[in-house]
Amino acid sequence: MSQKSIIGCLLGTAVGDSLGLPYEGLSCQKINRKFPNINQQKLFFNKGMISDDTEHICMIAQSLIVSAGEEKSFINAFKWRLKWWLLLLPAGVGFATLRSILKLWLGFSPNKSGVFSAGNGSAMRSSILGVCYGDNIAKLQRLVHLSSRITHRDPKAEYGAFAVALAGYFSSQDHDIIPQNYYENLKQYLPNSAEEFLILINHACDSAEKGETGAEFAQNLGLNKGISGYVFHTVPVVIQVWLRHQNNYEIAIQEIIKLGGDTDTTAAILGGIIGAKVGKNGIPQIWLNNLLDYPRSINWIEKVGDRLSLVCETGKSNFAVKLPWYFLIVRNLIFLIIILGHGFARLLFFL
Length: 351
Ligand SMILES: [Mg+2]
Hints:
By secondary structure, this protein is mostly helical. It has helices spanning about 5-20, 30-35, 50-65, 70-85, 95-105, 125-135, 135-150, 155-170, 180-190, 195-210, 215-220, 230-245, 250-260, 265-280, 285-290, 300-315, 325-350. The longest helix has 26 residues, at about 325-350.
């Protein structure tokens, strides 16, 4: 796991998230009609901000830093980060994640706090686990299990999260992966009960090998209007687009956003995977420059990636990178106002 891959994975997630966020919930037809060029962030004055997807992957990264991947202390660190994250009133929180964090506050253990949901919550934060621990599959499986189960108890969520983690790992390697090899590897590590998911991933790999577009593949899955937040929809589409554009962050992100639906999450997951391959230098500079957020800025995220690389290299835990929580309250309030403003603008212009 190189420093380039770790930083690239975190920044790739953040930038994808910030680009996809303004289009969340729009159909692909509407995006193609109104925004034919996804060439810059558009949340406010061509600047972008991050949402829960990036916040979660950063919390995972910080939990890995303080635990060095030791399972008990990893999940304990992540549990507390989730609990405080919710107290600071984030604008975007999935329903399953909200309910499970409330259960954590009520005293449920991380093993029991998850609710039965197959949403994207665990898939959106797992690419970094693969980048850091993909060379030890047994450990990776346990970390993905812990990280998923704390919010999502449906095994489907864990299959999706593991598929993303494995993609992150393969992407962090020097060579490109042949689609069918990815499928064969994944099949080896998932249980028999994941058959339905594996069929979908097999289709995604076939489709990528045939050179179908992401839109054609989404259509075959019946996702004509957009990619839903169901993990069996999101992950196969992300995998299909990744396998066709393993070295081209910009094209891949533009393509997946144009498919519509849960665009911040699809772009965040895909961005994390491809970021692990191309590193910071493979992400368009203008997209990095226009991500305007604080305290989780590009610099801060890079610092987290830096420290996590050191932890992975030495196997020794370290202090988490400081995050001034008092700024987060103000930031979350501003973010909420911007998101509400965005919602009103949509009503005015689209209805
Ligand atoms: Mg989000």
